[in-house]
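Progress report, Aim 2. The chain analyzed during this reporting quarter is listed below.
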Amino acid sequence: MQIKERGIILIPIDFTKQSLSAIKQSYNLAKYTHSKLVLLHVYEKSGNESYEALNKLTKQTEQESGVPTEFMNVKGDIYEETDRVAAEIKATLIIAGLESHMKFRNIIGSSASKLVRKSPCPVITIRGTEHRDGCENILLPLDLTMETREKVDIAIQFAQFFGASIRVVGVFDPKDDVYENKLLAYTHQVKQFIKSKGISCTNKSIPAKDVAQTVVEYANKIEADLIMIMNQPSLNVGEMFTGTVAQQIVDISNIPVCTIQPMKRESTVHFGTGF
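Predicted structure tokens for the chain:
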């Protein structure tokens, strides 16, 4: 899986500071990939189309970014319409600003978690309004699932775009020695592969019970600019109430999170949490 060049970056906007910040954080990536920006405004009631404000914002974005920019205005639910439009226009990436007080576990169902789980392409979620110009450190959490390996190539691609370093981290149950040993060997293997691509890379293994909290704390410790995780599109009953590790990371992270969609498989053997 790769982020295609000359693609389309879709940015859902509602004129909040978070969504406007998401636009600005798309500039560099759009330039590196020679992509077009599409600003998507979804309104619930007729009369809230905001054509004038959208036209002004689109022109401003194109002038500031230096890349082609268009806007779309559709009626409906912002989360459902974002995924629908992304599939329709064959978007290569969605960048979404999320309200800092909105948590996945509080809005499971028709919510941002649904947007991420059902998106046809990778999604970068951004909480808060802090603007990060560029990307120096990418945190790549790994486990032993087949899906989690798919994000290695995209992490490498992002690192090449930004001239960034990759920090590989594995989190394991302190009581599971077998898993720990397998994970340590795998993270070391991935580190060597990334370094063979000419990218600075380190690997670390951390014993912990709370995987999501540990990942976010480590991301802040190393001053990461982006966390890359794997989507888990299928939720069982327990996960619907507790949230998957991936959702929990997006929920609590103050750092932008890129969620990658796994390839479709007829059957998959899981060895870990899928982050």
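The longest helix spans residues 177-195. The chain is about 40% helix and 25% strand. These observations will guide the mutagenesis work planned for the next reporting period.
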